[in-house]
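#dry-run=false #mode=assembly
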Amino acid sequence: MTIFSEFGLRQVEPRNPVKHGCFSERTQQADLETINNDRAIGIEVEVENHSLLAEPNEHLWVRVGDGSLRNNGEEWITHPIKAQFAPAALYELFQVSLDQCCSFGPRTSVHVHINAQDMEPNQIKALTMLYCVFENVLFNFVGKNRNKNIFCVPIAETGLMRELKRRSIANTVDSWAKYTGFNLVPLASKGTVEFRHMHGSSDHVKLSRWVRIILRMFDYVTSKGFSEKQFETLCLEMDRNFDFHSLMTEVFGEDAGLLRLNGWTDVKNSVSSMHQAFVNNNLITPIVNTRVVESPFYTFFKASN
Amino acid sequence: MNNHEVIADFSRRWNGTFVWMFMENLNRDVLVKITGIEEHSTKIATINVQSKEYGNLVINFGSDTTNLKFKYPPVGVFQHKTDALVFLRRPQRQWRRGICSDNSTLQYTHRLITGKTVGWSFEELQAAFDKKVLTLDDALQGLAKRQLRSAALNNNFSLVLSPNTDPRDHLLLHWQDPIARVSEKTGKVTKIINPNYKSIMGRVYDNLQ
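#status=ok
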């Protein structure tokens, strides 16, 4: 069972921007970040004070209206493309198409969708737990206090991790909240996981690195040697003595150098929240059904007066 | 936007919510609740705020609104008076910007078991910002003397007086879920309710001692 079959999705067919001649000569000659990854992605870029120098190729970028933006705001989204084309696509939009007078104020953001149609529900759950552990570290990479933004709330600061292990993926997605940094809601309609963390920016290098960092987590949970059972055991072993730096290097490889993990305090709350994935709601019922008024809890006010 | 629209927009976003206000005479931030915005004949508008320490205050829209700051309390379990509470954020689409039930939840850790709910007031919210937790010894003593009904511990654990008579051992909660029974006298785990937590119990709870 994959996300594709679970939600009865239409198969994503990433476009080849090279085949459609989407990249200008300038982009082809630019020194860009490298992403060696074929997974399909989509990028959404919000812009204010929108003005164009050149119309982007319609086989790569599509303009959509966005009511949340002010000051002549526009949103550009890519067609699904292979991740390897993301650096060139971003360069093409920011350096070739958009006028330099375009701005990226606090109302704007950049969202990244990663295709997960090929993944199994348990891999999505493992990805969610892995992401949760490093959520603070990822928000630190993004910067600009985006963890306080109400449109990309950290999942470790919500109750969403509760019972993740026991619940079906459909149930999990159904009860997820869109306005989280790590958004599972599009799994049901597009088969993607959306990363809403990134502030508005035209920094194609930072955005390309962000895409690559995100993909590292997908690579980790879909790699041949990955075992969900072992990963769960690892999660249950996480405490202040756990070697988070080694896990970070294992997951993010060379990109671990772009991330800042100061120590236990950076992951303490995330790990505590992640552990809620192992909670079982059924265990509450027997306690609730045997509550009695003579118990210590219900005689508390009588006893304390 | 004209003045009327600016005020209406501000009111929609902030009225009825909690924010921090910098009090120049005290040189510190004070937690206040915005209780009303009124258009004014000689000023753009005035904002009515309520503070636990200073009662009702009126500030000028524009010049004084720069002193209003929004920040969330830290997420997690904390002690307030006789109970352990938990503060969480709600990722919902919303207009309101200050702390309120649209974007936050404040609950007893034992809510799922006892059904008891918390009202929003300055005291609860201030306690969320202070985020006090108890040592295991202090928690056990407070529960034994019936000074506490539930006790907030480190790492989002809390102990709750048993709502049952068999067993009478305290319930150990992680966030809001029961995971073990704990001896009233020694604080040692007597029964693990959620077997998944066996490893976490050994590593985290035992280190609270």
